[in-house]
Amino acid sequence: MGAAYLAIGQPARAASCLNFALANANPEEQVFGLLLETLAEAQLVDRDVSGCATSLDHAQRLATSLSQSRSLWHRTWNLRTQARLLQRRGSWRESLHLIQDNAQRERSTSRSFTETQVDALTALALTRIGPTQQAAEALLGLFQHPAESSVLFQGLALTASASLVAFNRTRRESLSHFARALRILGSTGEASSLVELVDHVVPIITEAMDRPAHAIAVGPQGPLWRPSQVVCHLETSTSVIPAIRPNDVELAAFVGTLPDLIAEPRTLGEETLRVLTTLGWIRSGRVARQGRSGAPTVVTSYFDGESPATGGEANASELSPLRLVLGTRHGHTYDLLVTPRDSCECLISCGTLWRLISALLNPAPRLGGSSADEARSETVDAADDEFGVFRSPAMITMLETVKRIAPLNIMILLTGESGTGKEVVANVIHRASGQPASPFVAFNCATVPRDMIESHLFGHKRGAFTGAVESFRGVIRAAEGGTLFLDEIGDLPLETQPKLLRFLDSKEIHPLGEATPQRVAVRIVAATNADLERMMKEGRFREDLYHRLNVVHFRVPPLRERRDEIAPLIERFLGRYAEEYGKSHIRMSDETLAHLLLYAWPGNVRELSSEMRRLAAFLESGSVIQNRDLSPKFFEERETPLPVTSDDARALSVRVDRPLSEIAQDVEIAALTYALRATNGRMDLAARRLGLSRKGLYLKRLRLGL
Fold first, then answer.
1. What is the pLDDT of residues 70-79, one digit of tens each?
2. How many secondary structure helices (H) and strands (E) does the chain include?
3. How many structural domains comprise the chain?
4. Which residues of 275-300 are buried (b: 16+ CB within 10 A; e: fewer)?
5. Are residues 326 and 265 in the same domain?
6. pTM to 2 decimals?
7. pLDDT by residue (tens digit) across 274-331?
8. What is d(CA 111, CA 432) in angstroms, rounded to the nearest whole number?
9. Is there a domain that residue 229 lies in?
């Protein structure tokens, strides 16, 4: 929770959570040091430089006293915080020496987000202390490793590069780079990164404008360097920074930000409109937003001269507007419409930029792909993507947390019903660990005979027992350097559990027939659909093993709690199995899809996959699946009421042959969901519409699991 508060720009609340955690943590365990280092980051964002230094010193002493090893990601992230602290103090040379002494000897083969951030801090220090040639090379190397939030790295580097003679730009001319970085980070990046960038930009702004730092403020919200949010509006955003007419360097910088903007259609449209406007290539333009129902709404607009009375329609003498579909975000589709000036230069320039953005939004198929590959690119390939099955809010939230803790090499326990996709989540953890090329080994504890499971896990030497005609490494050694997924851990025999516990504590295995134990470095992710706490009380599962496995616990919700994923899963499975059986264009009718959306799915994703495979096998190419094609089980009692289709989604049909509490809960969920969508998630306004207080709305959402 402290890390989440830090990410959204609330360092004081982050520090409160972390201090509470520190008060309840064991000072002799490594997690205590992790908490201290995260607290140091929060203190740095909150400008508590002395507190940050104290927390880092305490964490360093603890790390020295503990024998536990720390991951490369962890060490690099701590190095980043230390370097940022020194730079905030103005100790640029000490910061550079710290990075050079520590980072260079711990380079990994695959670039990570944290390593790229350390490179950005290196470039920043070099541009402040020189020499100029090394600074220029550091900046050049920075842009050869694209990563998340690359705008932050550009902003940090360009902030310092204003003093480089090699770039031949004045500080005032470089401010437009910073303005763009602020706008984009305000809508796509973490608030802590935004604060860090502004802290570096302020001295240059004050020097360029000949104004004291305390005079630069944005309305009543406070000084520019402590923003809680940056809103991207063409007329007002970053208006404190003087506008500079873009040249070829500015246009190149804008093009360099496009990869950061592809997932943010509104910001992409506004930034494109901004650069087209200041370049003078268009007469008029607008970014329009359209929801599931209703007329389009103009988000941002520009007109050359007097605005037309029609509110955005081009004059009869003007060229027809160019239209670009930017994408969909939170249920709204965004379009960019511009009318170029009727000159050859402007038409060619607009068209070239249009083609570039269109190519990024709709990438061409891979070379060598067949027409079948192209036809199913949206159905089958997406299923192999780490976000492919994460569509519901619960799964997306879990994915974000998983990716954050995956590099820490910490024990993870996954629980949930059979068929929910626990192995898929384990694969996500492995790919996000920072070493995706290392082995991922899945082992089901329920599929091996009880008397053979020990040798399967730990291995054995030839002749160790009757029938051991060859040596066997075991699955633990097979996964060395990577991830071992122990599925159905609840079925592990009681006599084998102490040996697994011994391995988890010592990282050593003792294969059958071997004289000495062997150390093995492997990450363990365990999963089960059993109630381990009940099994502990019944004496069927060791309590010490449970607590050793349950360091971080994720519950994978059943499919009936993630109904947003049913339709895309149906589409992907149908496409995959139809192609497997040599068929094509099998789709599902809207009525049948609605019926399946309301089915209880006791077998979860595995049951859905099996039914789609059966349908793909029986039906012919071009078939439209109807209710009569489904298995009889889908016409038994359904779990949820059938909603009535309406244009504004304000009507609901509820079955009354159920307990009153279930009926009331369905109505409450529908009313709360509609109110929150209608108010774009504004809690105060939604609460007033529902006749509730803000706290009352929060408690209802919590009780209903929304």
1. 677 777 878 8
2. 28, 13
3. 5
4. bbbbbebbbbbbbbbeeeeeebeebb
5. yes
6. 0.43
7. 888 878 888 888 888 886 556 778 888 877 554 443 344 444 445 667 888 888 877 7
8. 13
9. no
